[in-house]
Structures are given as structure tokens and as C-alpha cells.
Amino acid sequence: MTTFTLESPPTKALDDSTNYISNNSLNSENSKPRKKRNRPRTSVMVHDAITKIGSAEKGASVQKIKKYIYANYNVGHKNIHYFINKYIKKAVKDGELIRSTGYLNGGAVGFFKIAAKAKPTPSDRRTQPSAEKKPQREERENSFSRDSLREEPWHDRGIRWTADAVSLVMDLIEDVNVEPLSTSHFVKPYRMHYKQNDIKKIWDLICVHESVSVIIFNTDKKKLILVRQFRPAVYYSCIRPEDREKSSVNTVKYPGTKGLTLELCAGIVDKNKDLAQIAKEEVLEECGYEVPVQNFERIITYRSGVGVSGDPQTMFYVEVTNNMKVSVGGGLVSEGEMIEVVEMSIPELHIFLKQPEVNSPGGLLFALMWFLQHKAPKYSV
After folding, report:
1. Domain locations in the chain?
2. In angstroms, how far is CA 24 from the centroid of its own chain?
3. What is the pLDDT of residue 55?
């Protein structure tokens, strides 16, 4: 599952692999013919990139695959960016590509190799008898049937967003530059002067909002519900000190994936409401689950960023079911949020925690350990 900088979807499909469908296209019996592509299929371009630039051991990274395609094919960056990510995710699931680095359910992030016995690419299938194509076409048409779309509760909103939609632009970071902070609606910098044991000292700090976070577990799927998003502070910390002094950041050397983090669903406390109510609203906005406020179990309040902000964060636990899913989530578009919903099984959780390094806050690691100790045992049998 995934999320977005959302715009109204186009009336006609951008590519035969897109899932954006508007109400008009659902109700119209005479849809306009699609414009013929002037480029190869996404799978052909991705396989070509991995073959040309990938190593035998690791294959090629998603960023290098995209750069190769941008440089060698006549494609638009924003549209093809989505199709590349979508194809890679599907190809890993179908066994056409192998993820050589990264954890399970990692999406289109990391290095990928072509499987030894990969399925024929679309260009190869064109040479096969037409009789073999029919089941594939029927299966694709059935998977996007109008009846199945109308059954989804968020269809009434007029837009159908797929789980992969956020991949369209989340890690496509460009025109990066950093400047000193003068004013802000979110943080206030201060310098504290104090005396400790008769020694005068100073400490620079910032004041930020209190926040809440939520461990979400889907009892039907037996999976944790997490979120992935781009964090500018994490991205900036990956830039070498000598490169920070330059007028702009080299996004080829520092791709946007360096700023993608895996976290708990969370949000700031900027309303005069009960913390559980704020947690409930965040779960709906970011992950798409409508959960009764009484279902939220308060775990602990702790201090985050003790060296700089020292702000309190209150952590909750809540269990959800498939019936509680009312939208794809993704955050508030009006606030510029772009959040990908990530599902992680208990076995995948163990794999995640065994990694030597993760792009995640310490609060997530504490939450996962708490879940394994207090909740996971009854779902692991």
C-alpha cells in the first residue's frame, strides 16, 4: 500500500499499467482510444538498464535504473517514474526481478537483479501465438472490473488511488538548497544560558509541538501497519559536510531515497483535544482506518530528541480489521503530506530488526520490541 501528492487523476490512462480511474471512466461505455506509446514497455527499459549498468553481484539500484532510462529513452520523468516503481514491485512479486539488498516489503527501493529464469518480457510475448494472450488479457480486465471498484468504500470520493500511487513522486527530489532559518511556524530556536555547579554554560535548543504515535496491528492480515515518508532532516544528515557548503545539493550523488524513513503513524498535538482522539485522527488520515477512540491503548509517554528539543511523545497501541479500512490514507494533501502505508508481517519484523542500520527513529524500534513482547505471542501461534 502507498500514498501521495494527490491530484485529480486523468480521465484516460497514462499507461496500460496505471490504476488511476475516474468516475467518468467508470460510467462511460464508450471510452476514448488510448494514445499509442512512443516508447518501449517499462519492463523492457528496466531490464535493459539492469543488463547495461548492473553488476553481476548486486544488479542495479532503482536510482541508477531511472537515470539510465531518462538518458537513453524519450520519456517524461514524472510519469515514467511511477511506472518504473510499479513494475519493479510487481516484477519482484512475480519472480522476474530479485531484490539483492533491502528488507522484505521494501517497495521499489534498493538494488535489483534479473532473475535467472525470468518471465519473457512484453516484447518477447508479442512473438507468441495470440491464443496465449487471451487469458492474460481476461485476467487483467477482471482485476479492474467496474463492480469491484464500486465495492471499495473510498470509491465514493470520486477518485480511486492505488497502493503504489505515492511512488510517483516521493523520492523524486530536485532543486535542493539549504539556507539559515529566520522564522518558522513549527520550531522556535533558543539559546539557554545557565549555571551548573557554579560553571556558566549555554545550550542551543528548539521548541516543537508535543506529538502522538500509534502502533497499528491488523488482526485480519496479522500485519503491522507502518508508514514511509521523505524526511528532509534525515536527507540532510546524509550529505557530507563539504557538500553542505555548496549552493545546491547534487541529487544524483544524494538521491531522494536517502531521506525515506519507515516510522509509526504519528502526528503533532496542535489541537485542544484528548491525545487518544488525536491519535484516532492520525490513523484515519495517514493509514485510512476508522477506529473507535476507546480502542486506543495508551502505552507510554517519553521524551524525543533530548539533545535538541526534549519534546514529549505519547505512544498508543490499536488493533484494526479490514472492515475498518475506509480509505487508502496518505495524509492530508492540503498540508503537503505524502505518506506510503507499509504492511509488515511478524516474520518480516524480525528480519527488519536484524539489519545493522535502518532509516528509522528510535521510537519505532522501541515500539516493535514492545509489540513483540506484549502482543505478538498470541498471533504467532
Report:
1. 21-168, 205-379
2. 28
3. 85
Give the angle 371-265-307 at the CA atoms, nearest 5°: 85
Q: Which of 111, 102, 122 is nearest to 50 (CA)?
A: 111
Find, among 220, 163, 209, the residue nearest to 186 by Cα.
209
Burial track 343-357 (b if 16+ CB lie within 10 A, e otherwise) = bbebebbeebeeeee
CB 269 within 8 A of CB 209: yes
Q: Which three cell numbers stand for residue 312?
A: 514529549
- What sign does the CA torsion over 344, 345, 346, 351 have? negative
Grade residue 233 by pLDDT with cuts at 50, 70 and 90: very high
The secondary element (H helix, E strand) that includes residue 142 is: helix 133-143
Q: Angle 77-94/62-72 helices, nearest 10 degrees? A: 130
Nearest to 163 by CA among 4, 360, 331, 333: 4
Q: Same topology for domains 21-168 and 205-379, yes or no? A: no
Place of cell 532510462: 69
Note whether 22 and 9 are within 8 A (CB).
Answer: yes
Coil vs helix vs strand at 240:
coil
Q: Which burial class, exposed, middle or buried, applies to 47 when counting CB atoms under 10 A from its CB (0-12, 13-18, 19+)?
A: buried
Cell of 27: 460510467
C-alpha cell at 346: 511478524
DSSP state of 189: E
How many residues are recorded in the chain? Answer: 381
User: Are 159 and 25 contacting, i.e. CB atoms less than 8 angstroms apart?
Assistant: no
Residue pLDDT, tens place only, 89-124: 888 888 899 887 655 555 677 788 898 865 555 554
**Contact call for residues 319 and 297 (beta carbons, < 8 A):** no
Distance CA(230)–CA(160), nearest Å, equals 23
321, 218 Cβ separation under 8 angstroms: yes
Domain 205-379 has CATH 3.40.50.720: no
Quick one: average pLDDT of 172-189? 85
How far apart CA 93 and CA 297 sit, in angstroms, is 35
Q: Which three cell numbers stand for residue 356?
A: 545493522
CATH topology of domain 21-168: Arc Repressor Mutant, subunit A (1.10.10)
